[in-house]
Amino acid sequence: MRADYQNAIEEIQAIIDVMEFNNIAEVRKDKGCVDVLNNVLDCLRCSEIGTYDCYVEVPGTDGKIICCDKCLATEVKILNEMGIKTIGCCCGHGKLQGYIQVAPEFCDKMKEMGYIEQPVDEYGQGLWCFEPKSILLTNQSDG
């Protein structure tokens, strides 16, 4: 995976460097965009599917701490702050389609917000899962 995404990693790092070096107004006002890009870099550089090398802890809806991949942390945190209970997620680690799984009572709300529900396979995988809106890199083709 790391070799496949070396160009993407270098390009993202160059964007971050330019933004921070030039102290772009958006970066001064809200450094969140740089944090999101750094989180994507971390997931591409260090984690494989089935590992927890690049997870972070974010507050859940019930005040408990939950773990998720760094590149989904901002989106999961926002959903939880909105009262949407997330129960699982994975960024796909550059190899698979990522997902955010919510408690079943929040599926309609996710659809109302424009989230695309993922199909459920013959093993029940994908139940209550939605495609993240976060920018995630994957080697899957769209066709």
Largest sheet composition: 3 strands, antiparallel
| Shape type | globular
| Strand element count | 5
Give the mean pLDDT.
76
Low-confidence parts lasting 5 or more residues at pLDDT below 50?
none
Radius of gyration, whole Å: 16 Å
Short description:
The chain is of the alpha+beta class and 143 residues long. The chain is built from five helices and five strands.
Describe the structure.
α1 (6-22) packs antiparallel against α3 (32-46). The strands form two sheets. A three-stranded antiparallel β-sheet has the order 3-4-5, covered by helices on one side. Strands 1-2 form a two-stranded antiparallel ribbon. The two termini are 20 Å apart. It is an alpha+beta fold. The mean pLDDT is 76. β1 and β2 form a beta hairpin. 36% of the residues lie in helices and 15% in strands. It has one domain.
List keywords for this structure.
globular; two-stranded antiparallel sheet; 5 helices; three-stranded antiparallel sheet; alpha+beta; 143 residues; 5 strands
Question: How do the helices and strands line up, and which of them pair or pack?
Answer:
Elements: H1 6-22, H2 25-29, H3 32-46, E1 55-59, E2 65-69, H4 73-81, E3 86-90, E4 99-102, H5 107-112, E5 129-130
Antiparallel strand pairs: 1-2, 3-4, 4-5
